[in-house]
């Protein structure tokens, strides 16, 4: 359905005069902060935008397991293994809540997965970067989950009820993820000179990719204007990026690490940190499939889907038999 809908999606935000009566009533609900629920009427573009964003978000959670899953067997202690295992498992759960939220909009999980595997849906650019050593795993928890939380706390107030409610639970789990990442970074930053060097290197390499997670500048963002009018997004890409920078710099200082780039400076007039832009051409390149790990990530997901076919078939057959037995017993 989504694949069909995006072909017909319009661009530009309608004025009240351009809206139909039904669209005006819908916008009034949004403006009054009344949540939209699955059975409520909604414009086709609102539905398509949500399916796109929620689907992309779900895919990110699932693909996002790969960079960390790769380290479960190599975590330095049994305790770290158990923590990482729990975290990676949580990410799978987040994917499932989000696919379920997309299902309430009429889009099946199978279809979303198919579109991902065909390269017709995206997932977060960050997961196309490699995790080279244990410090990277700390930095992923701290910076990647940290950036995800900034975005997702705002999304708890998104206008679509099932998405907002999924975010509440996800944010609780995500704060555990960020804390475990920061804790791992503390151990490294306060450890031996070699460990400290690894922590600094991980921060330096992951800083700009983490900044890209918030998407292009507001002026370059295709969907922001309409998504903010519909309160699908309640804060803009640039606002969220600034919030992330402002909260993260004191954490870097607490670790005693150097700032990852020279443009970071406190701006007294703005009451915020200034910072340099990431390389947006690199971002676009990653989105086009040319990041360091895009091919590996998609191959891993397609293989997991194919390898799991017999499990899905078995579960469906079991459910069919159970339902048939229940009908026969009536
Ligand atoms: N990566 O017009 P906008 C996590 C695309 S969860 C890839 O500004 P929008 C947890 C965008 O889709 C991380 N593509 O788009 C975890 C659009 O392309 P399209 C995921 C990106 O949607 C931690 C085009 O660029 N979180 O990490 C990216 O209004 C650790 C134009 O952009 C979410 O998905 C990007 N970074 O704003 C898991 C949160 N940025 O679709 C495991 C929900 C932009 O037209 C381990 N999503 N694009 O072809 C959102 O809040 C929004 O979708 C944004 C983008 C803010 C990401």
Strand content: under 5%
Strand order in the largest sheet: 1-2
Average of per-residue pLDDT values: 96
Helix content: 55-70%
Distance between the termini: 36 Å
Number of helices: 14
Largest sheet: 2 strands, antiparallel
Number of strands: 2
Unreliable runs: none
Structural class comes to: mainly alpha
Radius of gyration: 21 Å
Overall outline: globular
Sketch the topology as an H/E string, one letter per element: HHHHHHHHHHHEEHHH
Which ligands appear in the coordinates? Phenylacetyl coenzyme A
Characterise this structure:
67% of the residues lie in helices and 2% in strands. It contains 14 helices and 2 strands. The chain has a two-stranded antiparallel ribbon. Helix 3 runs antiparallel to helix 5 and helix 5 runs antiparallel to helix 8. The radius of gyration is 21 Å and the shape is globular. Bound molecules: Phenylacetyl coenzyme A (FAQ). The site of Phenylacetyl coenzyme A (FAQ) has 28 residues, from helix 3, helix 7 and helix 10.
């Amino acid at each position: 359905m989504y694949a069909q809908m995006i072909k017909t999606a319009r661009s530009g935000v309608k004025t009240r005069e351009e809206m139909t009566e039904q669209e005006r009533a819908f916008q009034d609900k949004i403006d009054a902060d009344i949540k939209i629920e699955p059975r409520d009427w909604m414009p086709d573009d609102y539905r398509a935008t949500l399916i796109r964003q929620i689907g992309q978000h779900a895919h990110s959670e699932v693909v996002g397991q790969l960079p960390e899953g790769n380290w479960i067997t190599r975590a330095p202690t049994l305790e770290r293994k158990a923590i990482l295992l729990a975290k990676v498992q949580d990410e799978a759960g987040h994917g499932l809540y989000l696919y379920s939220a997309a299902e309430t909009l009429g889009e099946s999980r199978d279809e979303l997965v198919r579109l991902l595997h065909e390269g017709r849906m995206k997932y977060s650019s960050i997961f196309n970067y490699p995790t080279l050593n244990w410090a990277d795993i700390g930095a992923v928890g701290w910076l990647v989950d940290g950036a995800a939380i900034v975005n997702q706390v705002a999304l708890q107030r998104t206008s679509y009820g099932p998405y907002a409610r999924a975010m509440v639970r996800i944010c609780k789990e995500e704060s555990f993820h960020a804390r475990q990442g920061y804790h791992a970074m503390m151990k490294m930053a306060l450890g031996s000179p070699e460990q400290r060097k690894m922590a600094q290197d991980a921060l330096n390499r992951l800083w700009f990719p983490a900044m890209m997670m918030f998407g292009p500048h507001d002026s370059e963002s295709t969907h922001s204007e309409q998504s903010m009018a519909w309160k699908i997004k309640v804060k803009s890409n640039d606002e969220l990026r600034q919030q992330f920078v402002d909260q993260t710099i004191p954490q870097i200082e607490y670790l005693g690490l150097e700032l990852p780039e020279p443009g970071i400076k406190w701006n007294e007039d703005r009451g915020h940190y200034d910072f340099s832009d990431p390389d947006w051409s690199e971002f676009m390149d990653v989105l086009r499939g040319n990041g360091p790990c895009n091919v590996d990530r998609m191959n891993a997901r397609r293989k997991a889907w194919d390898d799991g076919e017999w499990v899905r078939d078995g579960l469906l057959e079991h459910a069919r038999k159970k339902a048939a037995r229940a009908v026969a017993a009536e």
